[in-house]
Amino acid sequence: MIYVSQMLGKPVLDAQGEKIGTVSDLAISTGEVFPRITSLAFKGPGKVPFMISWRKYVSSFDEDGITLQVDSKDIRFSYLQPAEILLARDLLNRQIVDTQGLKVVRVNDLKLSEGDNQLRLLGAEVGARGILRGFAPWFEKFVCGLAKLFGKEIEEQIIAWNYMDLLDRDLSKVQLSVTHKRLDELHPADVADILEQLDPAQRANVFKHLDSEQAADTIVEMDDEYQAEFIGELGERKASELVGNMDPDDAADIVRDLPYEKAEKLLRLMGLEDAAEIRQLLGYKEGTAGGMMTTQYVSVEQDKTIADAINVIRNLDEDMPAVHYVYVTDENQHLVGLLSLRTLVLAKPSKKVSDVMFTEVISVTPEVDETEVVDSIFKYDLTAIPVCDESGKMLGIVTTDDAWDVIEEDASNATKPKTSHVVAIVAGAIVFLAFYTALLYQIWVMPIIYGFLRVVGHGRKEEEKQALDCLGSHGTRYHHRHGRKRCRRYCHLQPSRRPVRV
Predict the structure, then answer these.
(1) CB atoms closer than 10 angstroms to residue 5
(2) Contact at 8 Å (CB) between 37 and 53?
């Protein structure tokens, strides 16, 4: 997670890695629910202000700085547009109206969401953590860690952008629009990215603005770890309605990750047909063709005509997934061929589908591993592959979308370090620190200690030498100047008597 306070003052580098300035501000366009960063403002040599397009020039960014995708000589500068505002200048440390809580609060920091090389403004931090972060990020961590020791939790207080309205509009020089872009105009994948980075309370508030269809699509686009958590936070009837609106394969994936009691309650609350399809898919092992297939496909019997097949497609529900093939079966639902949409369009309506269908169909059984299914889809350049049992009866299809999900999941798992690797790294770091500390001890600490002991020892020897001299002077009338008290320590003279010559 990135905050505006952490971005300010960070270096801006060109494509050659040369520093051309430091970040001074970020601009957004106010027409969206969660607006994207549209421009980057930075101070160049001599603190001269510049502004450039974020989408056109920014290559990468993190808490350490921003890297551009062009050389400094190729940059074309721009200006703040009428619909844009600057986050640090116009929002940071300003008063806003929380239009949900109907109260005036102060913006201590601004929270940004990152994804696909772009930043979106999620909301304003109006709590203590924003103030602490303003001093230094390490100071925020230190205070929060200290609070945990005493059993306290300093939580973020985020107000989502769609619940914000600037009080002092005249000073911002921009007319902020309260009619933000509606949530239903965003793609479900974008909404999912935003919801994943909100706390549960904020997530629920934003989710209320979605209709049932978009809500279901948004949950499907979430990462697996958030799907089950989010469904678990909803009421049982609402959760059952949303799961029932999903494609059977997506619904089965979510229900599979829920606790058994919760899953059974949801299935009992939804329609019998939807529940039966989901239960059928849950019967297959995860990571197999049966576990990843969907039961939503179009099929006709081989004695039907082309006109009949076209009428079947015309009468499909609006929420039916995209149709790429029409599968042809016999009276026992055994797969005997398929028709492409091109064939349906070009063939005469009176012809039987069995006369024009493609009979060399590549299929898999439900027990086949998902990696083999993906390999077959891309090897034969298919948009979907049918899944049939050992007798040839058609059970469902696996689409390219499902194949890409498997590839994405494998790639994600490959980038995550295994627990054993993490333990090994931590153990290695501890051993290195121990060795490094011991080395520093030998190089710096021990010589200092030895030197100190040598000085002390040298002083002790000098003292003893003086005492021995004293012992040798018992026949004299006078003591050395170190005094009778010390002399008594070595030559055991009585304080009331002077040494006399024998």
Answers:
(1) 21
(2) no
